[in-house]
Amino acid sequence: MTRPSGVMSKRRGMIRLFEVMLKMVMSRTLWVAPFALLSLVLALSHCAVLAGDVNIGTFSIVAFDPVTQELGVAVQSRAFGVGAAVAWAEAGVGAIATQASTNESFGPEGLALLRSGKTSKQVLDLLLASDEGREDRQLAVIDTDGTGVNHTGSRCLDWAGGLTGEAFACQGNILVSEEVVKAMAAAFKETEGELSLKLLATLVAAQAAGGDKRGMQSAAILVVRPSEEHPEYNYRYVDLRVEDHADPINELIRVYRIHEGSDLLRAHTRYAAHYDSLGDEEMAARERGLVGATLKRVLSEETDDADLLNSLAWFCATADMFIAEAVVAAERAVALSPDDANILDTLAEAYFRDGRPGEAVATIKRAIEIDPESAYFREQLERFEAP
Fold first, then answer.
1. Terminal CA-to-CA distance of the chain, rounded, Å?
2. Sheet containing 58-64: which strands, arranged edge to edge?
3. Are 161 and 24 contained in the same domain?
4. How many C-alpha atoms does 149 have within 13 Å on its Cβ side?
């Protein structure tokens, strides 16, 4: 993201203020108490840091999934905490990415316009028409028809531009070349699976094509999905940020995998139950299939993350899905953390669901030895021992 116009002149003023006040303090023309002096030094130091900032490059994508009605934004930048400034989305409404000389008001204002029934093109035009800094901006909007549009101002730093296609719009500034956005578009169209995976793939492709000239620092992904039973998904179905990291895209993927093996499992089982209630067997099977695909992928990778294996095994066992794989995951988790009573309970549950009550009893007794005060474990034992 590049800084708003007028910032450089403000920085010069802050530098001059810093110099003048520092001379006054040193010459005792200006007296300040010790604690006030510390605050003054910290504040002026911050001004000096701001003065040393440079324009920074960003690439992003907004997209729509017509099957699940998910909307999303993914972004990477040579800036701290890019997600909070760039990415905006609301289920049933649209998604927005505002970057270059970022105008963060475009996020809430644009969503309000989309909510009122405006198309993505109308929203783009209305936001830019009232913005004197539009030639320094990049803006992308997508609506629930899957129509993506974007704008790159004439004063954005090279290379700057974007591409639109079916259900997406991608863009970037201070990129090594146009090949970055071309790679993003190709990756989005070619990647199969959930919207979040398609968005992450575009970030990987962008960086592989050279990314932004200034390097990497932060990345984020925001996906929203309609749900009446769980309205939180309308605003944060997937909401992950890497604020400051040498390799933010791969770090974002790492934390996404943790999210995928925990919160997203719960979400998929909830949507499966929802589709069951509607009699939509195809969509219900799809949601359960995503749970199974996650479990099988983690097992194939032979991860050493006991908590991830335990979470996957518990969700699948208690939902009576992929029981054989759940047993394998729980056994691996126990092998990694043999003294964790909760993981032993998961394995016992998986054994029980797999029709192996004897092994369930033996395993839950191990958990009771570790935590003899647990009433829950004793209830589990009674359940497993019941005829």
1. 65
2. 161-165, 168-173, 58-64, 71-77, 218-224, 238-242
3. no
4. 17
Same domain for 62 and 47: no
Same domain, 99 and 147: yes
The reply to whether omega before 31 is within 30° of 0 (cis) is no
Burial 235-251 (b: 16+ CB within 10 A, else e): eebbbbbbeeeeebbbb
Q: Which residue type sits at 179?
A: E
Confirm whether 228 is domain-assigned.
yes
Does residue 259 belong to any structural domain of this protein?
no
Count of domains in the chain?
3
Q: What SS3 class is residue 385? A: helix
Q: Do both 44 and 85 map to the same domain?
A: no
Q: In angstroms, how far is CA 385 from the centroid of its own chain?
A: 44
- Asked if the model's pLDDT at residue 327 lies above 90, the reply is yes
79, 119: one domain: yes
Write out pLDDT tens, residues 265-274. Answer: 899 999 999 9
> Which pLDDT belongs to residue 56?
56
Q: Is there a single domain that holds both residue 43 and residue 67?
A: no
Q: Which two tokens stand for residue 317?
A: 């066992």
For residues 214 and 57, the answer to whether their CB atoms sit within 8 Å is yes
Kind and range of the H or E run holding 107: helix 106-115
To the nearest 10 degrees (0 to 180), the angle between helices 7-27 and 34-51 is 150
pLDDT tens profile 190-246: 999 999 999 999 999 999 999 988 889 999 999 999 999 999 999 999 999 999 999
Structural domain including 45 reads 7-51
241 and 308 both lie in a single domain: no
64 and 196 together in one domain: yes
